Amino acid sequence: MKIVIALGGNALGNSLKEQLQLVRQSAKPIVDLIEAGHDVVIAHGNGPQVGMINNAFEESRKSNSSIPEVPFAECNAMSQGYIGFHLQNAIREELENRNINKSIGTIITQVIVDKDDPAFNNPTKPIGGFYSKEEADRLSQETSYIFVEDSGRGYRRVVPSPKPIDIVEKDMVTTLLENNHLVITVGGGGIPVYKDNNRFIGIDAVIDKDFASAKLAEKLDANYLIILTAVEKVAINFGKEGEKWLSRLDIESIDKYIDEGHFAPGSMLPKIEAAKAFALSKKGRTALITSLEKASQGIRGETGTIIENCKL
Ligand code: ADP
Ligand code: MG
């Protein structure tokens, strides 16, 4: 089966040091799927990592004005590079441990968004460090940055989160996959770009990694989208009285549950919406949300939450 795996924050951790250790654990369930004969493409998030890179430039610019302003698209590209390095390094080691002869590499990936996406009128995604009101006012005058007050902790820059439309490097991913190679792609949701004549132009924005992974799975004509996160299953009444862990979510109940507010925006909701979009995109496409540790059991139908469209 052709599987797109979307790795969440818990596969990579919150710091560089943590990541170096965690990726070797995260490699195991991924290689289990490869060992079972599946074709696997790996996507991942980058929230803490791109935040770290962005903060490092911001902080150094505060004391040294000769440091250039580094656009967010470039920070995103840097995060794809070093996360990809850690993942391909750890997965290769695990492949060699099991005598599996496969090569793995990372593609710096651009994802096309619509310049007129309504998200551009309403930036919501906080990135980078916290500023005082005075600093935020000064920076927003010097740059075109938009700042919002974040839960009493200070002012933070926000960027838009547009929806992915297409993956620029998808043909390359397909070719590599057909030739039995493993690919890490759309890291951090991909670098958002829009097309202006023959040129792709990077934008200061963040594409949700769950949506980008679903788009990738659709474009690669994958059978399965597996979203690996910190929970084994999706729940309704999550963390509340009446909590119920679901093994299956059918498309009709999804909309009802979304309306009833069962899935937290910014964490579970994008996964559910991405899973639904993938399952609806073509007959035979299945999405699975489960934990990293349970990936292999999940694909055997033993655990996790399955989202498939039985009506198509
Ligand atoms: P990732 O880094 O994998 O994207 P997130 O933290 O963004 O992870 O989202 C996963 C988290 O969503 C879970 O760890 C859980 O705390 C939270 N969550 C919110 N609503 C639900 C729900 N209805 N069922 C299960 N988990 C939920
Ligand atoms: Mg998330």
Automatic annotation (TrEMBL):
GO molecular function, one term: carbamate kinase activity
GO cellular component, one term: cytosol
Reaction catalyzed: hydrogencarbonate + NH4(+) + ATP = carbamoyl phosphate + ADP + H2O + H(+)
InterPro entries: AceGlu_kinase-like_sf, Asp/Glu/Uridylate_kinase, Carb_kinase
Pathway this chain belongs to: Metabolic intermediate metabolism; carbamoyl phosphate degradation; CO(2) and NH(3) from carbamoyl phosphate: step 1/1
Pfam families according to UniProt: AA_kinase (PF00696)
Protein name: Carbamate kinase
Domain named Aspartate/glutamate/uridylate kinase: residues: 1-288
Keyword Aminoacyl-tRNA synthetase: no
Alphabetized UniProt keyword annotations: Arginine metabolism, Kinase, Transferase
Similarity field: Belongs to the carbamate kinase family.
Gene responsible for this protein: arcC
GO biological process terms on file: L-arginine deiminase pathway
This protein's record includes keyword Iron: no
Domain of life per record: Bacteria
